[in-house]
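hey can u run this one w/ shikimate-3-phosphate bound, need the structure tokens asap thx
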Amino acid sequence: MIKLNSSLLFSGELKVPSDKSISHRSALLNSISIGKSKILNYSNGEDCLSTLSVLKELGVNINLIPKENSYDLEIESKGLNSLTKPKNNLYAGNSGTTTRLLSGILSFSNFNSILLGDISLNSRPMKRIIDPLIMMGANIKSNDNCAPLEFSQSNLSGIHYNMDVASAQVKSCIILATLGANSKSVITQPALSRDHTERMLISMGSDIKINKNEVTICPGEINSIDIEVPGDISSAAFWIVAALIHPKGNIVLKNVGINPLRTGILDVLIKMGGRIEIFNEREVANEPVADIRVIHSELNGIEINGDIIPKLIDEIPIIIIASVVAKGTTIIKDASELRVKETDRLFAMSEFLKGSNIKHHLFDDGIEISGNSNFSGGNFDSFNDHRIAMSIAVSSLISDQETIINNHEAASVSYKQFWNHLELLKLDN
Ligand code: S3P
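ok here u go:
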């Protein structure tokens, strides 16, 4: 539990933690490629450490070099079939990305294995990956389409698959399974989702083609590559909204990944009236990176729906915080995926808004928030979800009374140093 009070200042310069999605992929892909790789700035969040611990359990040779807020890794691998039969069950903790991406690899591996996670992970939907993997020929037993997932040895063939949710995890799972299959897959997504897997595989020499919403991937070995992981825009999002809503907000965030399929949050906040400047744009490891300056701004309510949703799906809880202070109404729709994240994030944010006496209306697939409101402070729960804990923390910066967050430790899933950084920015470093 943590008690937070409002602050007079919110300013400074910060390097946000390393990107979670890119970290997972850098370790997973380099563990099934040919050669040696160095990964710089691997995330120290618990989810990414879960990926490393299952890879070690699968016999991958990983040298971990701790740094102040991240790790450097050295990985050596002999190709697609270099993983070995684990002695124990593979424990993915809270990490949906570890579970769904690794399932693609375990489906073609020549040993049996069991993959599971914590209570939240074991209740999240896995049918979305089980169905296409079984179509490819995988042998998977599940607990009513949830983890634990039990994989038995099998030979896979590629598929033509029309995904019904725009999910980068599902797309990546099929892509990874196809690497070890005996024919190509063609995957069609209803809307574009983050493409870190595709970008990394292109650099690794894979035969992968992208045509609008369609990805074609051919089986075959890939080559290890060195990767420098950029800062995570999903973590930067908390400080971007904090600086916009705090009357003395003025911050610079360094080295943030600005992959266009992740920057829906910037598009929306700029449209709401946010003063956000993107500068020092460059390319690192086939991913666009920049520095971001944010200055307090008067925000206006907005409608958010359709194809932009997958580009900001993880940022909706913090966008809800911005909507509370914005003038007018904000309506978020087409976001039913929020109900199957680490917790039901629409419900969790509605509970926070209820406890803060903020007028809102919950839909099955979204929420409507009446703006021009103040945060009252109070006693709230994170529902053990990192992004809910951090969103409530941002509201505390301008709350009338003290804000208490139960299970605030959940933030470590993606942002271990979040609470230190919050204090630093309040102190105007
Ligand atoms: C992720 C994809 C998204 C996102 C998650 C990370 C990834 O999930 O919400 O935090 O790294 O591929 P979905 O694929 O379920 O949309």
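Residues 20-228 form a domain with the UDP-n-acetylglucosamine1-carboxyvinyl-transferase; Chain fold (CATH 3.65.10.10). anyway lmk if its weird
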